Amino acid sequence: MENEKITSVQMMMLLYPAITATAILLVPGVTAQHAQQDMWLSPIWASLIGFLTVHITVQLYRLYPKKTPIEYSVDIAGPFFGKFIGLLLLFFYFHVTAIIIREYGEFVVGNFLFRTPIDFVMGAMVFVCAVAVRSGIAVLGRLAQILVPVVILLLTIIVILVFPDIELENMFPMFENGLLPSIMGAATPQSWFSECFLMAFLLPHVIDENHGRRWGNIAVVSIMLTLFFTNLATLFVFGNITASFVYPVISVVRYISIADFLEHVEVVVMALWVVGVFLKISVFYYALVTGLARWLNLSQYEPLVFSVGLLLCLLSNWSANDLVELTHFLGTTGSFYLSFVQTVIPLFLLLVAKWRNRAASPQPAVSHQERK
Amino acid sequence: MKAWLVVGMLIIVGLIWWYEWSRLEREYKKEKAAVAILLCLAMLLGVILMVNPDLPGPTQAVDRLFRPFGKMLEK
Questions:
Q1: Of the N and C termini of chain A, which has fewer Cβ atoms inside 10 Å?
Q2: Tell me, what's the ipTM?
Q3: What is the tally of structural domains in chain B?
Q4: What is the pTM of this model?
């Protein structure tokens, strides 16, 4: 496999859009259904899963340096079950990448390009991402380094522009039914935080891997803050009707009107989202294609990129009938699906690996100490 | 209409195949086989979805698998 390198800061900048980009589309509405006026607290509960996933991923990487989950699952669970777990991960990333592409397509067609066929919108995005993925991880890292600061700046400007419209009393009564509604509301965002497991596919390329844990955690904190502020902004503007919007954040941005002069800001937001989703799909796509190449023991992954892209286009068409079905899936069973594959399976692998290392000779433990 | 979709799929598959084939050296047999299998899968899936667009997909399978948990979040 290629030996391109990224820095741990670039890794964090790839993780940030890989989670935020779609987490501010559908998720605030789903969160509001459960948590109502406590929805600002949900991202904080949800981020606990993010910290747990980063911890598990880094621990596994310490035990099996320079290896991705596709390879160390074979080391941990044996050739048969290991390959099976690898196949499960590949199917999962196929499915989830297709769902993300579909989310992007539905968002663009539903809000901006009403007359464009959705297949064209999705196909164009997949093609751009395929070119980026084919160029390698170093190019993706530098792209993120250029684009993510712009995305963060624009998001901050939007939150500031909402200020004239906020009504603080929308937040009250705080904790009317105890903490439970806000924890229920965290169920969907936590599945987005479990996507931190993508770190496992990036870590073998990180040049200063000792800082991987720190920047992974910084990524989780920055994502948590972003979701916290966007949820707070939507809550302050819309109050308890937030749950009735499909895309609450875009509706808030449509609401911005300063002195009858600054209006129609959602055009900026669309640019921001297209950039974010482009990075998100690229990271997932990269994990999927390199994972597939490693699973098949190929020497390079580039030849697979375009054919996988074609399959992704078809699969995204197949993944749901319409937006309502997609939202319902992501709000209910999908939440458990994502965190089951990306947090529970790695946790299981880590426990088995620790148990095997204890049972076997103490040699891996020595190498573990040397790494410290 | 459907015939045109099949022709379009064939053109895309042919383009990808031609592009990858012209870049891979002779010794990369496994890579070529992998590309061929993936393209065949795509073609097969494309034709199946054209014949029956409402076929239950992976989302429905996962939905059935995790429904006991998903019920907790139904509203």
A1: C
A2: 0.90
A3: 1
A4: 0.90
